[in-house]
Amino acid sequence: MTVDLAPALVTGYLLAFLRAAAWVFVCPPFGTRSVPTTVKVGLAGALALVVGPHLAQQAVPLEVAPLLAASALQIAAGLALGFLGVLLFATFSFAGGLIDLVSGYSVAQLFDPGNNAPVSIFGQFYGVLATTLLFAIDGHLLLVRGFLTSFSAAPLTHLSTDILARLLTGDIALFFVSALEIAAPLLAALFLAEAALGLLSRAAPQMNIFQLGLPVKILVTLTLAGLALPLLPDAVSGMTNHVVRQSLDLIRG
Questions:
Q1: ∠78-165-28 over CA atoms, to 5°?
Q2: Which of 54, 232, 248 is nearest to 149 (CA)?
Q3: Is 117 helix (H, G, I), strand (E, B) or coil?
Q4: What contacts 70, CB < 8 A, 6 or more positions away?
Q5: Could you tell me which of 40, 76, 237, 31 has the C-alpha nearest to residue 168?
Q6: Residue spans of alpha helices (H) in 104-208
Q7: Cα–Cα distance between 224 and 192 in angstroms, integer?
Q8: SS3 of 47, please?
Q9: Which helix (H) or strand (E) holds 111?
Q10: Residue 48: which H helix or E strand, with range?
């Protein structure tokens, strides 16, 4: 028994797999080291099976040069879409890093096996919490749905580099602004605590303010971080929606 497959159908599956693989291997939470490579390849193959037949209708010449160009374009599109997802999680890790820097927790470093790099305590905590909240609010399904929509919105032979540059630079600026907004309440409270300790050191020079200040800042940080936790789900949801919108804008351009 022989199975005949149309060349256009095979090409559609191949190009869809290349874009999906590039996206899965980069975009968190799928692209972390904690997810086995076989699982990533299987997920990319499953996504390609969904959209492959639709891409077969788009004309890609069955020649070496056009196929290589289309393949490179799909990998670039997948990497760009995955990079937007990286910014989503980097925002919360960076916000936690700012809190660690001001509160003194940056002295203690943790090893993050997912990124194979040292991270600070609150940077790791905010990153893990953002991942947990993403799954709790079904944000991972929204990311996958947005990625699948990019196939219907994008031709296989076109990607606007102007829109790509504008979106990526704009998202990097949004990354810093969002991180500051997330960490701002704790940073302001820690600044006031530092000012109060400074005034106390002037009023009572005989006191050891360094010994007193460290537990005070730890107490303020832990208390306000606990009070600010209910605000994080809205932040994760808003950033996820933004990533999906930006992904579609990138592809439609």
A1: 35
A2: 248
A3: strand
A4: 15, 60, 156, 157
A5: 76
A6: 121-136, 139-153, 161-203
A7: 13
A8: helix
A9: strand 109-112
A10: helix 37-55
